[in-house]
Amino acid sequence: MPRLARSEWYDLTRDMNWTLSYVSDEDVWPQDLSNSYGIPTEKWWGWDEPYKITYPEYVHNQVGKDASVYSINAVLSRSRIFEELDPGWKSAILAHYGAIAVPEYLAGIGEARMGRFGRAAAWRNMATYGTLDETRHGQIQTYFPYGLLAKEPRADWAHKTMHTNEWGAIAARSLFDDMFTANDAVSTAIQLTFTFETGFTNLQFLGMAADAMKVGDVDFGALISSIQTDEARHSQQGEPTVKILIANGQGEVAQKLVDHMFWRSWHVFALLTGLSMDYYTPLEHRTHSFKEFMEELIVKQFMDQFRDFGLEVPWYWKEHFLPELDWYHHALHLGVWFWRPTVWWNPDAGVSPAEREWLEEKYPGWNDSFGQYWDVITANVRDGHPELTLPETFPTICNMCQIPLVNPAGFNAGRLAHPEPLIVDRDGRRLLFCSEPCKWVYEQNPARFAGQLSLVDRFLAGHIQPPTMEGALAYMSLSLAEMGQDATNYAWAFEKQLAVPGT
Amino acid sequence: MATRQRQQPKTWSLLGDVRRRPSAYEAVTAKFHYHFRREPTPFEHPGMPLNDWYLRNREGSPFQVDDWEDFRDPYKLTYKDYVALQHDRETYVDKLIDRHEESASVEGLSDEWVSTLRELYIPLRFPLHILQMVGLYVGQMAPSAYITNCANFQAADELRRIQRIAYSTKMLANAHGDELAATATARSAWEKDPVWQPLRETLENLLIAYDWGEAFVALNLVVKPSLDAVVNWRLSELAERNGDHFLAALLAEFQQDSNRSRKWSADLAQYALGRQPDLRQVMEGWTAAWTPRIEAAVKALAQPFDEAPVGLAATDVVSATGTQARDHLQACGL
User: What DSSP string runs through A31-63?
Assistant: First the structure.
């Protein structure tokens, strides 16, 4: 191997910052693509990545990682492992592929934007690796479900979700376009890498990989843990960017960018990961509840980060965020299960007697709050009327996060002061928000978000024809074969409570 | 809801009724850019300022065909293939360096040749970094992932070349003086030396060629092919003449990356012309605008070739580079 240690020559790979002479700074780094927040050009040149890597190290490492993951897939795709997976777990990975696979590829656009419009050569180099990484993640996470198409037609959603107007797709597109596909380079570093990847996905992938291995889904476990090792590296572009903003008196800007994207990420995270962890993962393989996971990993990590960088916890932390850990994803789960024909996976009710016992233990009071809805649903199913558990109307949708409002369930669970959404009348239009932070995010930058119609707005505006449930399902690109059904064909409703020994 | 069996699908539904099952390369590349020509705006919230940017510079570019999704990278590279390919090539470079570190060949280079390298080789990481930046611009603006991936891999190839230049610069500095590895040595040449100014002017202007079609044509059909010809061919030849077998072999190695860039670029140009013959005028307009700029840059860079201990006539550098540039345009159908 070449004799010079990386540290001896590394700086020569990252010092290509120079003063422009023939064109202007404003033309080369337009604000829409690279918001400097008023920090002078040369101040950015001190951008220093905490994780050092060279191109030869990159390709030498990555080739081994890819070979390993693809060879596991090659072997397992010929086995019956997928067919034998728990139905709830299958739903979890189908939901994951649909919401994450192509967006990861598109995060490569955000990375390439930082690779072009990042304000230091060192940063642009890191983003070049990030661009490659996200190409990898998009390709590998479509390749695996591609191999499942013959076994599971819903795997098609790993590819098509972002092309559709399925409500979850609209929510994901709204989030990811805001975060990276249509974000400027500086904000992307704070919002994609510092907030979303360091804060959420890095840890989520660790958790999912561990869960996958316990469930016996070696294929998905190997995939996810391999992706996580890339995320751990390229997510570190946020830290030096935050440091430069703070060192140059723009800490408030960094704080707002974090507050904005932490909240938005939380809502989609609760929808995707909250349901997977607390309802779809087989009970015997759950090591922690979603709330415990959030508290022990996400919340703790964020608190540490805020302290390390001199940021504050977001303004909504105690009043809105921490309380939602107790109820928001339970309410979403009810809604997703009820409106199951509108999603591309089969929601697992996850409320057998043993599961309810676990939920009550992890979320004291769950039976009295959410359990009461499931009592009615269970009774209808047992009475042979599952049709009564299906929707005939539409929910209202938040004009920020694009997720259906579940405020009444939060209110009935005693977690919200009132069941109604927050209403804002602006420019002749009535906007509905699920929460104060969603309203705040919108109002921080109304020009950015105004003009978009939620799925329900489109329905009311006559964009969805015919204006019926069937018309809406067709608008969402859901064929009859793809519409979600109960994952276990209601088996949970007929499970008996285990007799207590001695009685 | 009743369950209904769907016919076993051959491939992604978005690819339609295909006659043959798409390859793995196609399955992980086709139709990933959901935002291209999306109505009413590329991105979900119409108020996002980048909608205007993409509508102006991508959907609004004169470089349009009805469908970009039939374009194929002639090498059909997925990420997995790309890193496997470059892992092999970088293993070769590692061994090349091993061999020359063992023989201490860099220590034997003459002061005069080192002086040529100081002027002509060491500053290279600056202009090549701009090629990396513009490559990523083309990647993020391209209307199909089939194109995006080629451009992004090309940008990574620039990173590759820069890093080996950085390593060899440090080898030179260890043998011939620390100052060779100082940032100021490369930066001041790049910012002030007349040899570099026409190239710097060209590349700074290339950075703001924001129409995606123009960025692609200017970078991949005109500027990069010529600059690569100077760096990977002429400079390699000059190094060989001056007994610097290490540098000659190192730069020649990068010819492989250049050739790959030229091949996919030519295929894309031909694809565009095949789909929309009227594009010839647009593309030739761009090549006509950028060719004199890069020619002036090559002419300035050719001077130090003349002045090397064993020189290469500046006129020969210019004419050989011009020949390569014209050959490439011809391969592009222009």
Answer: TTTS--TT--GGGGGG---SS---HHHHHHHHH
Contact (CB, 8 A) for B45 and A174: yes
- Look at strands A422-426 and A429-433 and give their pairing: antiparallel
Q: Which domains does chain A have, with CATH numbers?
A: 37-494 (1.10.620.20)
Closest Cβ–Cβ partner in A15, A63, A177 for B83: A63
CB contact under 8 A, B87 and A27: no
Phi, psi of A23 (to 5 degrees): -140, 170
**Cβ–Cβ below 8 Å for B84 and A28:** no
Q: Which residues of A touch B2 (CB under 8 A)?
A: 480
Residue A404 phi/psi, 5-degree rounding, is: -55, 145
Chain B residue whose CA is closest to A16: B126
For residue B3, what pLDDT is reported? 44
Is residue B229 within 8 A of residue B245, CB to CB? The reply is no
**Contact in structure between A241 and A194 (CB atoms under 8 Å):** yes
Give the whole-number percent of chain B exceeding pLDDT 90.
95
Interatomic CA distance for residues A190 and A198, integer angstroms: 10
Q: Evaluate whether A219 touches A76 at the Cβ level (below 8 Å).
A: yes
Report which residue type is found at A245: L
Which residue in B1, B84, B170 is closest to A9 by CB distance? B170
Q: How many CB atoms lie within 10 A of CB A113?
A: 29
> What are the residue ranges spanned by the domains of chain B?
79-331
For the residues of A344-406, what is the DSSP string, one character each?
A: SS------SHHHHHHHHHHSTTHHHHTHHHHHHHHHHHHTT-GGGGS-SS---B-TTT-PBP-
Q: Is the pLDDT of residue B7 over 70?
A: no
pLDDT of residue B21: 87
Rounded average pLDDT over B253-258: 98
Task: Please say whether the beta carbons of B46 and A452 come within 8 A.
Answer: yes
Condensed to tens digits (0 to 9), the pLDDT of residues A441-496 reads 999 999 999 999 999 999 999 999 999 999 999 999 999 999 999 999 999 999 98
DSSP string, B149-210: HHHHHHHHHHHHHHHHHHHHHHHHHHHH-GGGG-HHHHHHHHHH-TTTHHHHHHHHHHHT--
Query: Which pLDDT does position A503 carry in this prediction?
Result: 44
Q: What gap in Å lies between CA A12 and CA A19, rounded to an integer?
A: 17
- Round to whole Å and give the CA distance between B1 and A499: 33
Pick left, alpha or beta for residue A37 (phi over 0 → left; psi -120 to 50 → alpha; otherwise beta): left
Answer yes or no: are the C-beta atoms of B38 and A173 closer than 8 Å: no
What digits encode the pLDDT tens for the residues B204-245? Answer: 999 999 999 999 999 999 999 999 999 999 999 999 999 999
- A residues 221..260 contacting B (CB < 8 A): none
Please state whether A500 falls in left (phi above 0), alpha (psi between -120 and 50) or beta: beta
Is ipTM > 0.95 here? yes
- In a mutagenesis test of the B interface, which of A52, A181, A389, A489 is the best target, namely the one with the most B β-carbons within 10 Å? A181
Q: Measured between CB atoms, does B101 come within 8 Å of chain A? A: yes
Closest-CA residue of A relative to B156 is: A128
pLDDT of residue A501: 55
> What local confidence, expressed as pLDDT, does residue A301 receive?
84
Cβ within 8 Å, pair B27-A142: yes
- Rounded to the nearest angstrom, the minimum Cα separation between B200 and chain A is 8
Helix (H) or strand (E) holding B249: helix B245-253
Is B79-331 a domain of CATH 3.40.50.2000?
A: no
Instruction: At A230, give phi and psi (nearest 5°).
Output: -75, -45
Chain B nearest C-alpha distance from A92 (Å): 20
